[in-house]
Amino acid sequence: MKSLMRRFPTLVVIGLVSPLLAACGTVDLDEVKSMTVTSSPFSRALHMEYLDLAYAEAGETDWNDANYFGAKALEVANGMSLPGPQPVSEREIPTDIQAEMSALHKALLTRLDYARSKKPKDAARAQAMFDCWMQEQEENFQPEDIAACRAGFKTAFDAIKIPPAPEAPMAKAAPAPAPAPAPAPAPEPARIASAGPFTVYFDYNSSEINSDANSILDYVANHVIAKDEDGLADIAGHTDTSGSGSYNDALAERRSIAVYNALKQRGMNAGLIRSSFGESQNAVATGDGKNSAKNRRVEINLSR
């Protein structure tokens, strides 16, 4: 099949091949060639590919294969059905090549489904050259023809490779749901270790708990101390410098006792430690004999 890669001149075909085929009762290649194929570009290309193979085999006086390929061309031209590549099982293929050819036949069918309409000429070439390869491989005595058919098939087969499907645009990921708000922590008993200091202020020359002082002591008792039996409260009384030192010592003591009793009345079971400093530890330095509201105080320092 030296001429399978090119078409025979029309005069040679008419003058030499057709009479021989007709005499042998085979397909009339000239008649098949004259038929008009209009069904599809793939059918027209396949019709000519099979005719080329039939003429090439007739040129080598291989009438059986010339008739086989001519019949395929006639089937395409008649439009009654569209022949596919010949199954490997229909030829006596050498054992060492059967697996490869069977796998390629299967792959070819898949590619033809895509390429008949997309690349009709390459698809027709791939199908015809596969049949050519099988026919030459069955005869198995013309290595050059086997290689030529196989190469023709592989080139066309590669040309009808199915392109990868385009990647679908990535869907925007749904925003992650907002995390559920953390449950509000259960109120813990206020830790004496971290609270305070708290300051209770007194009126001039007084150890009476006024309304502002009561509000502070309520907060300390209900929200800070929380009846913590293990806590300690250091209650320290102070005065300003407006009186004598001894008087102020006594006044500071009375103020610390007033706060002590007020916390006990509010249910504080923490250890209460009283102390008093008179005018010796002023919050605001004023000098002696000064009336200062910021210095008339009791400081409550809490600890464990």
Structure description:
The chain has helices at residues 10-23, 29-34, 41-59, 63-78, 95-118, 120-139, 143-159, 211-225, 245-265, and strands at 198-201, 232-238, 271-276, 297-303. With 304 residues, it is of the alpha+beta class. The protein has 2 domains: 10-159, no CATH class; 192-303, OmpA-like domain (60s Ribosomal Protein L30, Chain: A, 2-Layer Sandwich), CATH 3.30.1330. Strands 1-4-2-3 form a 4-stranded mixed sheet. Strand 2 (232-238), helix 9 (245-265) and strand 3 (271-276) form a beta-alpha-beta unit. The longest helix has 24 residues, at 95-118. The chain is rod-shaped and about 145 Å long.
**Helix and strand element order:** HHHHHHHEHEHEE
What number of domains? 2
Beta percentage is: 5-15%
Major sheet, described briefly?
4 strands, mixed
Got a strand count? 4
Rg over C-alpha atoms, rounded to the nearest angstrom:
55 Å
Low-confidence blocks of residues: 5-24, 187-194
Question: Count of DSSP helices?
Answer: 9
Helical fraction:
40-55%
Which structural class fits the helix and strand makeup? alpha+beta
Please give the alpha-carbon distance between the first and last residues: 107 Å
Q: What is the general shape? A: rod-shaped
Q: Give me the side-by-side strand order of the main sheet.
A: 1-4-2-3
Average pLDDT metric: 83
